Amino acid sequence: MRNADIVIIGAGISGAVLTERYADSGKKVLIIEKRDHIAGNCYDYIDDNGILVSKYGAHLFHTNFEDVWQYVNRFNNWYPWEHKVIAQVDGQLVPIPVNITTVNKLFGLNITEEEEMQQWLEENRLPIDEPKDGREAALNKVGPVLYEKMFRHYTKKQWDKYPEELDASVLNRIPVRTNWDDRYFSDKYQALPVGGYTKLFEKILDHPNIEVVLNIDYFDICDQVEGYEKLFYTGPIDRFFGFKHSLQDRLEYRSINFVGETVDAEYFQENSVVNYPGQKNEFTQIIEYKHFGNQQTPKTTIVKEYTTDEGEPYYPVPNDKNQKIYEKYRKEAEKLTDVYFVGRLANYKYFNMDQAFKNALDLFSSLEKQEEELEMQ
Ligand code: UDP
Q1: Where is each UDP-galactopyranose mutase C-terminal domain found (predicted)?
Q2: Which residues face 30 on adjacent strands?
Q3: Using CA atoms in the order 268, 272, 277, 278, what is the torsion angle rounded to 10 degrees?
């Protein structure tokens, strides 16, 4: 490995953006990735059925950040893609987020005006001023009946916790709509990269100042990595510190088991993602990848998602207990000079993709500004 000015651990969104930014500013950057591929959990590839599939679950890009949108468009073309999700509830397929169609179908109603839907919600939701956990957040939005049908068991399957054991922010991710809008997100920009995310990352990392090293766990070689100006770590923060603050109470993460199968039919389901919020099925979702970008193939690939405690960490688990453990690591991290913790696992925060781009871009800008100020002195 050659000497580098900047060392980046992890080739997901945060790592790739910082790598590109520093390389573009003239620094030599070494990016070390444990897996055999770049792109982190955005990694996608063409499978045996000729379908572009994501190895670690569907990734739907959406943002209101102008700077992030401009940044991602510098490297690849994007095509508009408004993600929709349907949920199988009481044997019916209904839109999620809850909208007029959801309520009409599940309760046999015929709501035709937004005002009627607002009234229905007022009669059914449980207003709670400041929801203190995920259960209160969902009850406040949709009330007990929809909570039970669509959120309670799904959350238990996804997190192995009931909503009352999670921060309100988790359930607040899902809005409720008083119109017919059946998009999963409301952001100004909703799109997917032409050719997939791996291609996007290849382009982000395509620079003569960048050396990408795959298949190497940083912790196996950390004593050989020295002489850098700055190191950016994007892995789990507790691992960096040898789990020393969580020997008894572990900092929790959720992982996902992806179980794929080929179905010998043109389509398996009517939508890219169908959620299963009931107790009957252990999986949370079935993804049919060929829907993304309307890929045309004779067969189809479906992937069932089972969330689990075991395996690679994908999601931090937002609640007070974990936050307290994380705080201990954060304080430890703050004491280090020239080492920066960035991204979902290193910041232990449930960032969306665009937030990950934004944080990495902002971190680079603020560190560059600091450097400039130091030079001026
Ligand atoms: N959720 C739910 N039922 C659903 C979809 C989501 O209860 O059909 C809850 C669940 O707790 C989930 C949270 O809402 O963790 C946020 O969902 P989101 O789709 O944002 O999760 P992600 O896409 O990050 O997996």
Answers
A1: 149-350
A2: 7, 211
A3: 0
Of 59, 96, 173, which is best to mutate to test ligand 1, by the most ligand atoms within 8 angstroms of its C-beta? Answer: 173
Q: Which amino acid is at 78?
A: W
pLDDT band at 249 (very low <50, low <70, confident <90, very high): confident
162 burial level (CB within 10 Å; 0-12, 13-18, 19+): middle
Query: Which CATH number goes with the domain that contains 370?
Result: 3.40.50.720
How remote is the CA of residue 171 from the centroid of ligand 1, in Å? Answer: 7
236 and 330 part of one domain: yes
* Structural domain contains residue 125: yes
Quick check: pTM over 0.90?
yes
Q: Which ligand 1 atom minimizes the distance to the CA of 350? A: 24
* Atom number in ligand 1 closest to CA 352: 24
Nearest-angstrom CA–CA distance, 246 and 330? 13
Domain of residue 99 covers 85-171
Q: What is the pLDDT of residue 343?
A: 98
Model pLDDT, residue 247: 78
Q: Are residues 119 and 225 in the same domain?
A: no
Q: Is 58 in the pocket of ligand 1 (CB under 6 A)?
A: no
What ipTM is given for this predicted complex? 0.97
For residue 168, how far is its CA from the centre of ligand 1 (angstroms)? 12
- The answer to the question of residue 357 being in a domain is yes
What is the residue with the minimal CA distance to atom 2 of ligand 1?
151
Residue 159, burial from CB neighbour count under 10 angstroms (0-12, 13-18, 19+): buried
For residue 193, being part of any structural domain is answered with no
